[in-house]
């Protein structure tokens, strides 16, 4: 059963296209994700709450907190691969 993952526009700045786009790199089975070409500020009043990685086998998710870098590392196992839409 496939579930649709929904993404929302930032309520603070109203922009998800230019500054909030996650970029991933793949090194073997390690996927490194960074949110934003310029790292997004992670302030108490405005921060990225989570990063998800869609794979051909499901969704990985990492919770973030204020003060953390907006980055995440995921390890792909078995026959998993990054889902590209």
TrEMBL record:
Pfam families: Desulfoferrodox. The keyword DNA-binding does not apply. One of its GO terms (molecular function) is oxidoreductase activity. Residues 18-79 form the Desulfoferrodoxin ferrous iron-binding domain. Keywords: Electron transport, Iron, Metal-binding, Transport. InterPro entries: Desulfoferrodoxin_Fe-bd_dom, Desulfoferrodoxin_Fe-bd_dom_sf, Desulfoferrodoxin_SOR. The keyword Transport applies. Belongs to the desulfoferrodoxin family. PANTHER family: SUPEROXIDE REDUCTASE-RELATED. This is Desulfoferrodoxin ferrous iron-binding domain-containing protein.
